[in-house]
Design brief:
Metallo-beta-lactamase, Chain A; 2 domains; 24 strands; 32% helix; binds MU-OXO-diiron
């Protein structure tokens, strides 16, 4: 693929990873991803914005054929999917200097072995004139690591945002448009990657909004040609508002927990509450994370294994705890044979969440009338808590 022009003198030179299906050995990528690098040619200097994943090194080098000199390489983020080709590029372009934040410099040295003498730290708001194109570096920590930054290109009204606003979406389209599929991919990415940093993101959105831009060029997924589309989506996701939605990740071994979950689902629907159960042996955890972006309540369903929670449910609880969704209420339901600490174990795994823990329901053996009555009471409690939510 040839470099693709975004604006005169600004080119996409990244790599599309159509077949990648897992990130960080954890995050499902059902739609693949891309690693976007951008080449900017001013009248006096040429700059590369980020690199690509090391597996795509040859693709980047092909895209840079004919580029004889790189004055600078901007490293917005030290994670290897964007900085991994820096060592090879620094050898190929012996004059190139890496520009990054103060916190990025030791990460680039430690993780990639970059010569510290070839790294220049840029201050927050510092500008660089390329000749007719002016870059302004904005420190935007925690999108996705503490060292991250974005860059504003004033003349072309472009914001280069790296992971911020990205989507794991392999697409032949250079520009995202405003299709629902683009929205869904960006929301999934937010849920899986950005949700733990909701509060810093609120500040970073305010910060970048002070500058004028029409285009957001992230380092994963298509380029947003309607910046307002993704900005307003993010503003909703990071807001403190929750929706009238209950998410129920669960496992069942012999049917008791599933019967309880399905009764609770029906009871919630009867009370005009949206509900999304996830049977965890088959669920995509990215879908679960997406649902948690909006949900007001989380209910985890677990059977008892060797006296404790089912490990798969515990794993979902640990992941949810790491993702820090803005849920307000949580409960645990489930079943056991002769004794159980499953409820305490699962609730104890949610310590990062600022939730009110509602009284759960644990059932010995098969659920009976009193079990279903207790689940109805839980549904009543959730309905009271959700009153007025959209
Ligand atoms: Fe796309 Fe945090 O790396």
């Amino acid at each position: 693929m040839k470099p693709r022009e975004i604006r005169p003198g600004v080119y996409w030179v990244g790599a599309i990873d159509w077949n990648r299906r897992l990130f960080d050995s954890l995050i499902p990528l059902p739609l693949g991803t891309s690693y976007n690098a951008y080449l900017i040619r001013g009248s006096e200097r040429t700059v590369l914005m980020d690199t690509v994943d090391p597996t795509m090194e040859q693709v980047l080098f092909r895209n840079l054929e004919g580029v004889e000199r790189l004055d600078y390489i901007v490293s917005h983020h030290a994670e290897q999917d964007h900085s991994g080709v820096l060592p090879s590029l620094m050898s190929r372009y012996s004059e190139a200097i890496v520009l990054c934040t103060p916190k990025a410099k030791p990460l680039l040295v430690d993780h990639l072995g970059i010569d510290p003498d070839r790294i220049k730290i840029v201050g927050d708001g510092e500008t660089l004139d390329l000749g007719g194109k002016t870059l302004r570096f904005l420190h935007t920590p925690w999108v996705h690591w503490p060292e991250t930054m974005t860059t504003h290109l004033a003349e072309d009204r472009i914001l280069f945002s790296c992971d911020f606003f990205g989507s794991h979406l392999a697409s032949s389209a250079l520009f995202a448009g405003t299709e629902p599929s683009v929205y869904d991919a960006a929301k999934r990415y937010y849920a899986e990657i950005m949700m733990p940093f909701r509060k810093p993101i609120q500040k970073n959105i305010e910060k970048v909004r002070r500058f004028e831009f029409d285009i957001i060029a992230p380092s994963h997924g298509p380029v947003y040609d309607d910046a307002g589309f993704i900005l307003s989506a993010y503003e909703e996701w990071v807001s403190d508002d929750v929706k009238n939605l209950v998410v129920i990740p669960y496992i069942s071994m012999h049917g008791s927990t599933e019967a309880m979950v399905m009764h609770l689902v029906d009871a919630l629907v009867d009370r005009a509450i949206r509900v999304h159960p996830f049977e965890l042996t088959s669920a995509d955890i990215g879908d679960m994370a997406m649902a948690l972006v909006d949900a007001a309540t989380l209910v985890l369903g677990t059977p008892t294994v060797l006296g404790g929670a089912h490990p798969t449910v515990l794993s979902a609880a640990v992941l949810t705890n790491l993702l820090r969704p803005k849920v307000r209420y949580a409960a645990v339901i489930g079943s056991y044979g002769w004794g159980s600490k499953a409820g305490e174990e699962v609730a104890g795994a949610l310590s990062n969440l600022k939730v009110e823990v509602l009284e759960g329901v644990m059932c010995k053996g098969l659920p009976r009338a009193d079990t279903y009555a207790a689940l109805d009471t839980l549904a009543d409690t959730i309905a009271d808590k959700h009153a007025g939510l959209p």
